[in-house]
Design brief:
This protein has 313 residues and is mostly beta strands. 7% of the residues lie in helices and 47% in strands. The strands form 2 sheets. Strands 1-2-3-4-5-8-9-10-11-12-13-14-15 form a 13-stranded antiparallel beta sheet, with no helix packed on it. It has a two-stranded antiparallel sheet with strand order 6-7. Mean pLDDT is 86; it is low at 22-32.
Length: 313
């Protein structure tokens, strides 16, 4: 009996360790929306997301603490206990055609203010190109090219919007992501004097359905190995349509380089970004603005239950 118990405990621990090894590390292996041809088709719908709701008791003149001039306000000095309530909720459904193509339909809502917004509504397909089965073709509204650093909650690039593109297009082992996207139109609510409008506000401030005239061509080259180093290269171009006043139209350029080294206990990563007429997004342009961003981040896993993450930016 003792041997059987020991064997059962050993098998249980082996399964726990295997599950922990498979758990996605957001620094080492960021999740991607691109499905692969060998993906298992789950029954029913897949739900994902996160939320944070609770009582935020104020003991001073400010409920949250921010830093003047910082990239991301309150999160620049730490996130725990210093973020507002809200959440993101996503539902996905995958299908497999008789020809073997894998389709996925994705919808996400978020709740960060007094309204619920539609943040994602896109469809994608993979295993449809015989010469490039891993290529993932998508179209719609999505969180697009938004690499994030978790400790300070900073998106060092962000091109969320509506458009279409392809991910993981393989050429000689190197993979390419290419897309054309537009920034979603939104508005700032203003009170109107018109008494015929019961609400007397121009809009609610949520995301619209159309574009605002700012567009981006985005590229990412990845799956590049330089010895023990993994290399990613970003190149983006931003431009405006005639929806933007002629004297305000600008072009913007942006390049990025990520060097990563992964070992058995963690990962170290160097991130470099150069932007001309923009900061972290070529949607948002400022004439004669040049920005350079550099950071070093990583994680070290001591045990399956203990890990430390660090960031210098």
């Amino acid at each position: 009996v003792a041997k059987a118990v020991d064997k059962a405990l050993a098998d249980r621990q082996a399964k726990i360790d295997a599950a922990a090894d498979k758990k996605v590390d957001v620094i080492t292996n960021p999740q991607t929306t691109a499905a692969s041809p060998d993906v298992a088709i789950p029954f029913g719908l897949k739900f994902s997301g996160y939320a944070r709701y609770g009582a935020h008791f104020q003991t001073g003149d400010q409920k949250y603490v921010g830093v003047d001039g910082s990239y991301n306000g309150a999160s620049a000095i730490g996130r725990l206990g210093n973020e507002s309530n809200g959440g993101e909720f996503q539902i996905s459904k995958a299908f497999k055609s008789a020809q073997g193509a894998i389709w996925d339909l994705n919808v996400m809502f978020d709740h960060w203010s007094d309204e619920v917004n539609l943040k994602k509504a896109y469809v994608g397909v993979t295993n449809v190109l015989e010469s490039n089965p891993n290529a993932y073709i998508w179209a719609g509204r999505d969180f697009h090219q938004r690499p994030q650093q978790g400790i300070n909650d900073y998106f060092w690039m962000n091109h969320d919007g509506q458009g279409a593109g392809v991910k993981n297009f393989d050429i000689g082992g190197v993979q390419f992501d290419v897309a054309a996207v537009s920034q979603v139109k939104s508005c700032s609510p203003e009170v109107m004097a018109d008494e015929t409008n019961p609400s007397r506000i121009t809009c609610t401030g949520s995301s619209d359905t159309g574009d605002n005239g700012h567009y981006a061509l985005t590229t990412k080259t990845h799956n590049i190995k330089a010895g023990p180093i993994d290399v990613e290269v970003y190149a983006n171009y931003g431009f405006d349509s005639k929806a933007v006043d002629s004297d305000a139209r600008l072009e913007a350029w942006q390049g990025g380089l990520v060097l990563s080294h992964t070992n058995d206990s963690g990962v170290n990563k160097v991130i470099l970004r150069y932007s001309d007429n923009s900061d972290n997004s070529v949607y948002n342009k400022t004439d004669d603005l040049t920005t350079v961003y550099a950071s070093f981040e990583g994680s070290h896993k001591f045990t399956q239950q203990a890990q430390v993450e660090y960031l210098l930016a």
